[in-house]
Structure formats: C-alpha cells, structure tokens
C-alpha cells in the first residue's frame, strides 16, 4: 500500500463510522502565516553504490567467496538468461578525454595507418611522432623539427595500427615537445573521426583485447577467479548489447562509467618513464577462461548492467532479467559501500520540490518487500500556503544530493515534540498553573495562561518551533502566543493539536463524544465518547491520522482495528525508529514498561510517571522518556536525567 506503514498496513475502516472528507483547514489566525525556510536537517541512511541493476560487483565477490561459480553468479544476477559463445569481433570504444583533440602516436617499428577502405600503409619508423588531424578532410602528419608536415590526405577516417599496441599522447594541436606528456598504449586501432562537429578518438579493438583493459578497471584483480570471470562475461555481454544498438554512431561504448571503465594496456607519466601495466594476469586469465561467452535472453545479448554494490537488494532495471530482489551475497564480501549516511537540510528538500515547506516524505519502493526507492512524494505547502505534493524519482534525489544509490531511507520529518527553540531537539518544559508561567529549559519563562488551562505542545505557525499555547475548557477558547485568540470548542472537549492538512501547521481541533472537529473542516464521526484521541502521522505523508485508543485497541481512520496494549495503558504515538512515521506504542504505568510495536519491550519508568517520548539528541528518533512529577525529573533512556520544574507543574508534551 502507498499510505500506511507496516504497523498499520492492510488495516480497514472502523466499523459503523460514516467517514467524511476533510477540506483544508484554515490557518490559526488569518494573515499570520509566512512560509519559513527550515533550518532542520534530516539524516539519510543508504546502502550500496551505483544504480544497483544486474550484477553487484561486491556481491559477486561475496558469492565467489561463498563457493559460487561464475555461471551460478551470472544466473543469480541475470535470471532467465543463457550462455552463448560469440566471435571475438571488434568493439569501438570512445576515448572520452581525447574528444576535441588531434590524435598523436609514437613512431615505432611496424606502426601503420589504415584508411576508411581498410587499406594499411606502413609508416617510416625513423619519424618520432605522427598525428592525425581534420581540416575538411583527414590529414596524416609527421613531426619535422618543430613543424607538422602533411604527408597524406583522405576523405575517410584514418587510424593508427600496430601489432602490439599504439602509444597515444595527451597532446594539443600545437605540441612539438612530448618529453613531459603522459601517454597510453592501446591495442588494436586508434582512429580519428570527425563526429558532430568535433574530432573524436575511437579505439577499434577485438572484444577480448578490449576486455583486458576493462575487467581490472571494474573489479580488483585480487578477487576470486569466479568473480573475475563473472565480470568478464558481464562486460562482454554489455559491450555486445551496446554494439548491436550503435547503428549510426562512430563508436559503440564510452570508456567511462557512462558505460564501463576502459584504460587501455599501459600508461606512462612522461616520455622517459617505464610503462605502468593496466592489465593483470588474473583478469587476463578470467577473460581467456570465458572466451567469447555472453549472456543472452531470447537469443540476443543482454543489457548486462552492473554496479559496485546494490547494498543487499538489486534494483529494477526495466528488463525481465534485471529484477529487484534481495541479494544475500553482499554480506559475504568486504564491501566498504554496504552502508552510508548523509545529512540533508530540509531547506534543500524545499528547493528540490519547489515547495515553501516540506512536512512529509512518502517513499515508494520498487517491491513490497523493500529495496531501492522508485519515487518520493514530497508533501508540504507552496508559497501561498496551499497544500501540495511534488513527486520526484529516487534517481533524481540521488543525483541532486550526490547520494551513492537509490537504496535509502530518510529520517523523520515529523515535528520534534516540545522543541521551543527550533534546534530539532525536545526541550524540558513545564506549565505552572498557579502562576500561568511556562518554563522552558534554556529559555526565558513566559506568562501565558491561567489555572485550569490545558497546555498544548504544537507548532501552529509552521516555523519549526513549538508554540506556547493553551486551551481554556471553561470557554472553549484557544490561545496561541503571538496569534489572535480563537473560540473553537466547549467545556468537556478534548483539545488535539496536530497537522491534519499537511501544511506544516498544527490545526485547532477538538474531540467530542466520538466526533472530531477540525477548524475549517466538516465534523468527522470517529470513535466514541470514552476513547482516548490520538493524532499522529503513521504513514509519513505529513498529515496526522485521526486515531483513537480504546481498551488496548488502536483505531486508525481508514484502517482496521489493531489490538496493541491493554486497558489502563497510555498510548504514545511517536517516531521511535526515525523512518518518518509514528509508531504505535503504549506505556504501562502499573509496571513502567514501554511497548513499541516491532521493537523489544523496555522497562523504563514507574507508576505515576508521565510518558513524554522526547527526541533528546535531535536524531529524528523519539527516546523512551518519562517525567516524574514527584521529583520534577525528566529521564530519557540512554541520557542523563534533568530536574526541571517543581511539584504541581504540568509536563509539556504532545
């Protein structure tokens, strides 16, 4: 389901309720809302590196360590494919960094030039350097002193060929001194092509010779043979697929991560330096052991995508053999990219979406069992305060923020409870009925309210800070510090301050005898008079769900009843896991035990304690926390206790 998280997934409508649509609620005070660029941050927890389609290179290594053969590895990552042997024909690799440059080569014994008709001509070995240029036609030129002399012209592309390799130089059009320049050896032919208004260098090379420069660039040569063989077959299959669809282009594959990394045979740091091999014996052996092998589907080479790490769950690549599925093999690898984290400002989410406020995120994954994110709904309000939802793909978020993969989760965007200073951490705060004072730890006290008022903890203005606010049962009037008073409710009503519309501002709401009244909306019958009203965002869409707790059973509007707890328990709906969705939880006063659905029970507290579930450290996760009225002590599991208040004070919490 798109809306409900696992804890309420699949739940249906409370029997007997006549459900009404909620129109957008009015702001607490007309003309008081101004969109605020949030200073909050969220934590992104991710897994893997790369698109996650097809073969995971680290997963392949783990599978090989676990005893899988190359064939078994390939069948796992490309299900439904078969092995076919193809001829060792040429592949055309674009040497990307030489785009826009001329092609320079060392004069060696046996160096030849090939024209567009395939005719080879041997070049004078006494010439130290040759180059190919384009000026309305192709030019073969030799270096003579400090000048380049044209020795041949051609209407078709020209290329350098040598039986071993061609040494190509990173030179410019005016270069005549090569002593300090870098260079590389490439097998096969290096061809200059005028393409799209610029010169390009294309390496035309037999497939398996090309793979000798690919496999050690894509997988460490120290990996097990089965992993290297699987990489060789995947790279060969990918190249064969791309070659089949390169009609009309001057090349088949890029030499970068745009396709697969290709380095040639060797590199040099200067004219006098020794060659640094870019091929390895182990990967050469893997290529030879799988000579000609490709994976096919319905008889044709597959789009054999691969990436560094899928994080333990492969991503859907849009092909029947590129499926989204759990990957157990990454756990057996030495994968440094299995897990990663990032911190993102909520203001950046606002910029990405174009919304003035972002109050909720709903992540839609590729499978019902989890994995990579396909799309994300960013929920909030536009600059005019109108509710809005903007959808972005997981790939868009990955690209925008520079994340390693689309296998990620974002910590809670739910408002931090009792955060009066907007730093993302809950503040210890009390209301003193005898004086009408609010005491927020670290802030100056505020006189606001009288004896009998009900203090509220909510952000009514959308600025990311909890507002000082009270509901006066005797008159049904709401008082929010800095805003006009609002008469909404009557004696006996239970005030509920939560954002039901998703505009980032708490709505003035009361629960009365089984009816919910949200200011600016039609009444909603849901529950009965003796229910405990609970308002929390259980699905991460930025909108609080109308919910009641009754004798150990939770009723969420639009969902089936969920037994969790027992009579006498105190419902506590907070985000304890940091996934941006409130968790169903109860505190049992008789034993001091907390029960959070899906987590182990925790004994923390005693009879008489008030469960407050604060986010003490600002990590987006509520801590198991209590306030002890007898001693005015605030205690959060894993943190030092704080004494704040005095007997008779009321703890401020949602």
Structural class: mainly beta
Widest β-sheet, arrangement of strands: 7-6-11-14-15-4-16
Number of strands: 52
Biggest sheet overview: 7 strands, mixed
Distance between the termini: 28 Å
Average residue-wise pLDDT:
91
* Helix share, percent: 10-25%
Shape: elongated
Computed over alpha carbons, the radius of gyration is 34 Å
What fraction of the residues are assigned to beta strands by DSSP? Answer: 25-35%
Low-confidence stretches: 1-37
Oligomer: single chain
Compute the number of helices. 8
Attribute tags:
mainly beta; seven-stranded mixed sheet; about 10% helix; disordered N terminus
Give the SSE map.
Elements: E1 41-46, E2 55-56, H1 57-65, H2 70-77, E3 82-85, E4 90-94, E5 103-106, E6 112-114, E7 120-122, E8 129-134, E9 138-144, E10 147-154, E11 158-161, E12 166-169, E13 183-186, E14 189-195, E15 198-206, H3 207-212, H4 215-218, H5 225-244, E16 253-254, E17 266-268, E18 276-277, H6 281-289, E19 293-297, E20 300-301, E21 306-307, E22 313-314, E23 325-326, E24 340-345, H7 346-353, E25 357-367, E26 370-381, E27 387-393, H8 394-401, E28 408-410, E29 429-432, E30 437-440, E31 446-447, E32 454-458, E33 467-472, E34 477-480, E35 486-487, E36 494-498, E37 507-512, E38 515-518, E39 524-525, E40 532-536, E41 545-550, E42 553-556, E43 562-563, E44 570-571, E45 585-588, E46 593-596, E47 602-603, E48 610-611, E49 625-628, E50 633-636, E51 642-643, E52 650-651
Parallel strand pairs: 2-21, 4-16
Antiparallel strand pairs: 1-24, 1-28, 3-19, 4-15, 5-8, 6-7, 6-11, 8-9, 9-10, 11-14, 12-13, 13-17, 14-15, 17-18, 19-20, 22-23, 25-26, 26-27, 29-30, 29-52, 30-31, 32-33, 33-34, 34-35, 36-37, 37-38, 38-39, 40-41, 41-42, 42-43, 44-45, 45-46, 46-47, 48-49, 49-50, 50-51
Helix pairs in contact: 1-5, 2-5, 5-6
């Amino acid at each position: 389901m798109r809306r409900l998280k696992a804890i309420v997934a699949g739940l249906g409508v409370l029997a007997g309720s006549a459900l009404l649509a909620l129109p957008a609620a009015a702001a607490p005070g007309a003309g008081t809302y101004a969109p605020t660029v949030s200073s909050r941050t969220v934590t992104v927890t991710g897994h893997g590196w790369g698109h996650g389609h097809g073969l995971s290179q680290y997963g392949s290594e783990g599978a090989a360590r676990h005893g899988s053969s190359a064939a078994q590895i390939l069948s796992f990552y490309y299900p439904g494919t078969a092995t076919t042997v193809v001829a060792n024909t040429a592949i055309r690799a674009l040497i990307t960094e030489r785009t826009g440059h001329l092609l320079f080569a060392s004069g060696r014994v046996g160096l030849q030039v090939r024209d567009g008709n395939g005719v080879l001509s041997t070049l004078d070995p006494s010439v130290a350097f040759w180059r190919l240029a384009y000026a309305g036609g192709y030019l073969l030129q030799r270096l003579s002193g400090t000048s380049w002399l044209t020795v041949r012209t051609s209407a078709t592309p020209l290329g350098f060929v040598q039986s071993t390799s061609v040494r190509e130089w990173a030179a410019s059009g005016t270069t005549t001194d090569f002593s300090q320049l870098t260079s590389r050896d490439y097998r096969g032919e290096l061809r200059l092509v005028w393409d799209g208004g610029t010169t390009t260098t294309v390496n035309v090379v037999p497939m398996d010779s090309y793979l000798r420069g690919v496999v050690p660039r894509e997988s460490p040569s120290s990996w097990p043979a089965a992993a290297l063989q699987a990489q060789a077959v995947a790279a060969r299959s990918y190249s064969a697929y791309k070659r089949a669809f390169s009609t009309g282009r001057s090349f088949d594959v890029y030499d970068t991560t745009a396709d697969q990394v290709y380095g040639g045979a060797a590199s040099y740091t200067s004219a006098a330096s020794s060659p640094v091999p870019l091929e390895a014996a182990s990967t050469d052996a893997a290529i030879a052991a799988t000579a000609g092998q490709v994976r096919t589907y319905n008889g044709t080479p597959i789009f054999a995508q691969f990436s560094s790490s899928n994080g333990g769950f492969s991503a859907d690549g849009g092909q029947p053999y590129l499926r989204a599925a759990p990957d157990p093999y990454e756990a057996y690898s030495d994968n440094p990219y299995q897990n990663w984290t990032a911190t993102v400002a909520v203001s950046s989410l606002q910029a990405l979406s174009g919304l003035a406020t972002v109050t909720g995120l709903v992540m839609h994954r590729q499978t019902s069992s989890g994995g990579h994110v396909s799309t994300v709904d960013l929920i909030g309000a536009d600059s005019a305060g109108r509710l809005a939802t903007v959808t972005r793909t997981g790939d868009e978020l990955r690209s925008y923020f520079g994340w390693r993969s689309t296998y990620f989760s974002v910590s809670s965007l739910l408002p931090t409870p009792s955060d009066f200073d907007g730093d993302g951490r809950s503040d210890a705060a009390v209301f003193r009925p005898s004086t009408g004072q609010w005491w927020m730890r670290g802030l100056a006290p505020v006189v606001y309210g009288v004896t009998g008022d009900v203090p509220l903890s909510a952000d009514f203005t959308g600025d990311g800070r909890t507002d000082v606010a009270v509901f006066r049962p005797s008159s049904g009037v709401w008082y929010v510090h800095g805003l006009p008073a609002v008469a909404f409710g009557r004696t006996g009503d239970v005030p509920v301050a939560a954002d039901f519309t998703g505009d980032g501002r708490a709505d003035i709401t009361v629960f009365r005898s089984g009816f919910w009244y949200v200011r600016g909306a039609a009444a909603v019958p849901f529950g009965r008079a003796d229910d405990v009203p609970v308002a929390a965002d259980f699905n991460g869409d930025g909108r609080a769900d109308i919910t009641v707790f009754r004798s150990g059973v939770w009723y969420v509007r639009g969902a089936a009843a969920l037994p969790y707890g027992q009579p006498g328990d105190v419902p506590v709906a907070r985000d304890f896991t940091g996934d941006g969705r409130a968790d169903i939880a109860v505190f049992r006063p008789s034993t001091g035990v907390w029960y959070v659905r899906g987590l182990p029970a925790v004994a923390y507290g005693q009879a008489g304690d008030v469960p407050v579930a604060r986010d003490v450290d600002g990590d987006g996760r509520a801590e198991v926390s209590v306030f002890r009225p007898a001693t005015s002590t605030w205690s959060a599991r894993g943190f030092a206790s704080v004494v704040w208040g005095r007997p008779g004070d009321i703890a401020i919490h949602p």
